[in-house]
Design goal:
The chain contains five helices and five strands. It is α/β, with parallel strands linked by helices and about 140 residues long. A five-stranded parallel β-sheet has the order 2-1-3-4-5, with helices on both faces. Helix 4 links the parallel strand 4 and strand 5. The chain is globular. The termini are far apart.
Amino acid sequence: MVDIDNKMRFLLLSNDGDNIKFMIRSLNAKGFNNITAMENGLEALKVMADDPYEFIIVDTNTSLLDGWLFVKELKTSDRIPNTPLILFGKDTCPVNPNELKQFGVIQYFKLPSTASKLDYLIISSLSIHKTSGTTEYKHSKAKS
């Protein structure tokens, strides 16, 4: 089991107020209270370059830059440190599972879902990240 720091800073990226409320409630229930919510994917990339968060939860539906493109930009940036993240949405996953994993997404979180599944994905992502320093495949497409 991974040791989780409840003071971790979370970035939540979504246009949907209901999704934001669900994620914040779920994170608060686990003791995570340092959460910033944003709607704009481009603005989030700028913020991450100057002041990175320890964990990111990204909706596929975001302003100016959709969630999947945000993930790809984040993971290929030399200015932004490697950060564990979860990609979620109400629609089907935008890419196949192997491509998700190549960019460090353990599993697509399809809504509606449960807080326990979100907890599992957060803990899995953190565990892999803390033990290997990354969640991407060793020979990842992300930096290629």
